[in-house]
Specification:
alpha+beta
């Protein structure tokens, strides 16, 4: 198993999308990239901690290639929006990839370069060293599945899940 830590707006959307993919063993919503130890959701939402809402995606690269995990990331959010995704505004919603070693950094750079061909405008996704990853509160874990009728899930997360289902049908869990 391998893991990538990715941030692309609200972690509920990333969590929902990655849980639909064959070869993904686990998705954990959390916070990383900032300076405050053990941040809470309320503190991260202020934008003052430096942390981003992120997910740690654990996957089997023999089932789903690394490149697919990363291309899904660049498909499901808009990497040209600085410190925001739609109505979610602030550095906590930045587009970022957190690498664990030089090999991951290179993979992330290659994925960002591929995405530059798909998106009009400049990609603002940062590639940062992974510091400590803090697991978010339990109610954030698998939020979409637990709250399918919640307004944000219906208006924002569901369209992203459906987009990935169409674009990456070969990797969707049956």
């Amino acid at each position: 198993m391998e893991s990538f830590v990715l941030a692309g707006g609200c972690f509920w959307c990333l969590d929902a999308v990655y849980r639909t993919l064959r070869g993904v063993d686990d998705v954990v919503s959390g916070y990383t990239g900032g300076s405050l130890p053990n941040p809470s959701y309320e503190l991260v939402c202020t934008g003052a901690t430096g942390h981003a809402e992120a997910v740690r995606v654990e996957f089997d690269p023999d089932v789903i290639p690394r490149e697919v995990i990363l291309d899904v990331f660049f498909t499901l959010h808009d990497p040209t929006q600085l410190n925001r995704q739609g109505a979610d505004v602030g550095t906590q919603y930045r587009s970022a990839m957190f690498f664990q070693d030089d090999e991951q950094r290179a993979l992330f750079e290659q994925a960002r370069d591929r995405a530059a061909d798909w998106w009009p405008g400049d990609i603002v996704t940062t590639i940062e060293p992974l510091g400590e990853f803090f697991r978010a509160e339990e109610y954030h874990q698998d939020f979409f599945a637990k709250n399918p009728g919640q307004g944000y899930c219906l208006a924002v997360a569901l369209p992203k899940v459906n987009k990935i289902r169409r674009s990456y049908a070969d990797y969707i869990v049956a």
